[in-house]
């Protein structure tokens, strides 16, 4: 019995020692380090396959080479698919309508599709996920950016790309004319008027003039005058504050804009600014490269950036999430899907994608010198200041976004054409209210 007992004890001790050695060498089950730093001991998602769909967007290009590291850490395989914006929306809508379990994770435009996707039950609310890991530090995200991805108080996605409306201007022209950078809308109008010289092909101002595209840019004029598109499910584009904002935008385009401005969306507007024919331009900060790239712009070294000018309510530019990451509510791999989203939006990975020029939503990354290397030095303080507040939407927050933008945009176009702006706003308000009421039945 003694010999038998000794053999049993020897085997048991050997097993304990072996287990200890394995644990010490990384054999114990551990979660992968947040953000991709350090080596996970085990691969908790070994054998899992995750389908990720992105837009053909610089963020997608920036995240792609980082994915193998994530796969190595977790043991899961990520299948990546990319589509142009309109194709992406169409593909997602078709797949979700059929109840497809893929893609597991996808890029989406919260203010364009977020409400539709949420109301149809296509996105998995992430509220319960963001608080599971303290190291994730969800409070680090800009509040306005999070507001863009929130529908009916539910978190429908995590911000990956943010945008703020800013003012672009010609530093050389302002300096020559002795004009200070406008801090108010009144100062902007005065400066635009002074620099407007159409006889010499120099126009004071340009921005989006097409009916639907202009809505996102006129939004900052609205907010800064104390107005909004709607409040508590009531359309409000006919208020005195709204009329003043629409009137200012329409006047700038009509009286001081270049020929054909009503046919311009952002590519055409920033294009003519880059040709050196416009003094002031307002649009999203994310498209700055079109004005500062020497291969695209003849005034690349003369472009200045400023916080959006203030109105009666102060400076209130939109500060939004233009692209987010969301989880398919029908995904069969929700834990794995969240692991990817958590990794892709961690401080460490946001730092890496932001260094490629993708403006993220984590405030701590913007506070790091290495987090701003992907942007012009003069633009960084403007982005940081604009990110502190602002408004979390740049269009009416409805399901039928396209219809709503057409209704609101008509106010500006009618004003430019010389029609009565008050009558145009009253008509648009009725149409927007009808859209709001219709959406309630969806």
TrEMBL record:
<dbReference type="InterPro" id="IPR006059">
    <property type="entry name" value="SBP"/>
</dbReference>
<keyword id="KW-0732">Signal</keyword>
<dbReference type="Pfam" id="PF01547">
    <property type="entry name" value="SBP_bac_1"/>
</dbReference>
<feature type="signal peptide">
    <location>
        <begin position="1"/>
        <end position="23"/>
    </location>
</feature>
<protein>
    <recommendedName>
        <fullName>Sugar ABC transporter substrate-binding protein</fullName>
    </recommendedName>
</protein>
<dbReference type="InterPro" id="IPR050490">
    <property type="entry name" value="Bact_solute-bd_prot1"/>
</dbReference>
């Amino acid at each position: 019995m003694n010999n038998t007992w000794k053999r049993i004890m020897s085997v048991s001790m050997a097993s304990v020692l072996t287990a200890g050695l394995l644990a010490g060498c990384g054999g114990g089950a551990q979660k992968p380090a947040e953000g991709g730093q350090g080596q996970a001991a085990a691969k908790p998602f070994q054998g899992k396959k995750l389908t990720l769909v992105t837009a053909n967007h610089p963020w997608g290009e920036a995240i792609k080479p980082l994915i193998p590291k994530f796969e190595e850490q977790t043991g899961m395989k990520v299948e990546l698919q990319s589509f142009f914006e309109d194709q992406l929306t169409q593909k997602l809508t078709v797949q979700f309508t059929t109840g497809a379990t893929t893609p597991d994770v996808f890029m989406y435009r919260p203010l364009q599709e977020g409400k539709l996707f949420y109301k149809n039950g296509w996105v998995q609310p992430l509220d319960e996920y963001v608080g599971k890991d303290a190291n994730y530090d969800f409070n680090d995200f800009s509040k306005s950016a999070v507001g863009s991805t929130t529908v009916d108080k539910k978190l429908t996605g995590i911000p990956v790309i943010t945008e703020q409306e800013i003012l672009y201007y010609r530093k050389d022209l302002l300096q020559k004319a002795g004009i200070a950078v406008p801090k108010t809308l009144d100062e902007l109008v005065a400066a635009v008027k002074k620099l407007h010289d159409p006889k010499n092909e120099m126009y004071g101002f340009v921005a989006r003039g097409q009916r639907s595209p202009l809505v996102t840019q006129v939004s900052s004029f609205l907010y800064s005058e104390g107005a909004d598109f709607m409040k508590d499910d009531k359309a409000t584009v006919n208020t005195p504050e709204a009329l003043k904002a629409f009137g200012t935008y329409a006047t700038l385009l009509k009286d001081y804009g270049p020929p054909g401005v009503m046919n311009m969306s952002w590519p055409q507007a920033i294009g003519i600014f880059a040709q050196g024919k416009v003094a002031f331009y307002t649009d999203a900060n994310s498209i700055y490269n079109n004005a500062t790239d020497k291969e695209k712009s003849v005034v690349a070294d003369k472009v200045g950036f400023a916080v959006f000018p203030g109105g009666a309510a102060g400076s209130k530019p939109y500060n939004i999430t233009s692209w987010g990451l969301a989880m398919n509510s029908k995904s069969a791999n929700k834990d794995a899907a969240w692991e990817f989203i958590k990794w892709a939006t961690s401080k460490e990975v946001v730092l890496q994608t932001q260094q490629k020029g993708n403006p993220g939503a984590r405030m701590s990354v913007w506070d790091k010198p290495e987090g701003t290397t992907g942007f012009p030095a003069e633009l960084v303080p403007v982005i940081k200041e604009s990110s502190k507040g602002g408004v979390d939407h740049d269009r009416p927050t409805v399901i039928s976004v396209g219809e709503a933008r057409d209704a609101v945009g008509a106010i500006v176009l009618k004003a430019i054409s010389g029609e009565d702006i008050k009558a145009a706003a009253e008509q648009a308000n009725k149409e927007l209210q009808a859209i709001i009421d219709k959406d309630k039945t969806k």
